Amino acid sequence: MGHLIDGVWDKGWYTPDAEGRFERPPTVFRGGLPDGGVTEPGRFHLYAAYACPWAHRVLITRALKGLEHAVPVSVVGPRMGDDGWAFGGFDGATDDHLHGARLLRDVYLRARPRYTGRVTVPALWDTHAGTIVNNESREVMRLLDTGFDALARHAVTLYPAALRARIDETIDALYEPVNNGVYRAGFATTQEAYEAACRDLFIALEHWDAVLARQRYLCGEALTAADVCLFTTLLRFDPVYHGHFKCNLRRVRDYPNLWGFVRDVFQTPGVADTCRLDHIKTHYYWSHPHINPTRIVPLGPELDLREAHDRGRLGPAGPSALDR
Ligand SMILES: N[C@@H](CCC(=O)N[C@@H](CS)C(=O)NCC(=O)O)C(=O)O
């Protein structure tokens, strides 16, 4: 935890608003790709964490597109302490292959020596421009999906042109109550703020469980970016958000359609290798000592993500899943 102020590291945690509500600051790097797309393998480098649901979206996109050879990745370890994200130190975490930095904040300082803001994953680095081009997961997913077709080994698209408006409205609808909702519940510092976030979250989960009773995926007939955005939150739900963030009215396993959806996406070729529950659990339970002062990481729950599902019987999405 911590952030940079004018290029200087400050160990401070997020400051809640006057009502004890968690507010996520906007991301700073919001650039795009060269005109005509990317043709040179290795021009862009991804900084990621297996622990983080936002970075996980991008790791899944990279795997589904078959871009591993074209977009190399450096992975921080799951324990985010006073110095923020650090490379290595845990099975599956790596060195910074590009700059040899010890800390992710050093990468941000190379991009902008007087950077002010949080030091977050994912971050996509442009080796030509010598800076971070974008660190907003939703946008990085889209850049990888639409700008690297010359290099992609799989003919997969997560933003098919005909569905883009629906995918965007679905991602918008998921963001506040679900993706960010678990954090608003977990990082709330008043009873009222926690309860409001937790109730909104479970209202939304009921809704999406009903939608996924009728259709296999959220938009259209194949997996899209919207499904990826829902999946990375649901995967972390029973192992982390249910206990650590007190999102405990129900578990994802108690929703037959959400739980089937999680197994379906997990079993999609390429996805399982991006899912590291050891990183996920260690990250949250270790990195928030104001919530879990002993830093003990629980052993459970036992989850069988490889258990068969029968979601292949379901048809394509109806016109809009948002208002039903
Ligand atoms: N809006 C950003 C959020 C990214 C984000 O908050 N990542 C977390 C990890 S789960 C992080 O790096 N946090 C470090 C910090 O806030 O200091 C996105 O979607 O890319």
Structure report:
The chain has 324 residues and is α+β, with helices and mostly antiparallel strands. It has two domains: 3-147, Glutaredoxin, CATH 3.40.30.10; 161-313, Up-down Bundle (Glutathione S-transferase Yfyf (Class Pi), Chain A, domain 2). It has helices spanning 53-65, 104-111, 137-147, 164-179, 181-186, 191-214, 225-241, 256-266, 277-287, and strands at residues 3-5, 8-10, 44-48, 73-75, 117-118, 123-126, 131-134. Helix 1 packs across helix 7 (225-241), helix 6 (191-214) crosses helix 8 (256-266) and helix 7 (225-241) packs across helix 8 (256-266). The chain is globular, with a radius of gyration of 19 Å. The chain starts with a strand and ends in a 37-residue tail after the last helix. Glutathione (GSH) binds next to loops.
